[in-house]
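Researcher: Next sequence.
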Amino acid sequence: MRKFRKYEFGSKSAATTKIKALGVDEEGHPSHPHSIVVLGNIVTKKGVYDADDNEVTAPVFSSSWHVDVLWNGDPDPSWDNQMIWCVYPGVHSFGNSAAEEEFIKECKVQQPDLYASEEE
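Model: Next structure:
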């Protein structure tokens, strides 16, 4: 079963090192069966724009580097320290409904407060 997880790293370099450790060929292409999307510094607060699309208030970006992984099987435990939980889908989703359902179910176990208003 494929499993979807979200990760947060202190820098682009730290994320790149972790991704490369999963395996790359001599040309630098992935040699592992996982799907990875590097999101980078994500928007934590949307910008404000006027009717002419001029920026009134700039968006705020995270200082952390974000990566989403659709694991082919169980997530690599060496990534656990960077794993984060958020209300699904966050800023990105893979569109794999079984993996989405598994992520939401696990998130409710790991961070039930994120879904508390749903259950009231």
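Model: The radius of gyration is 16 Å. The helical segments are 12-21, 97-110.
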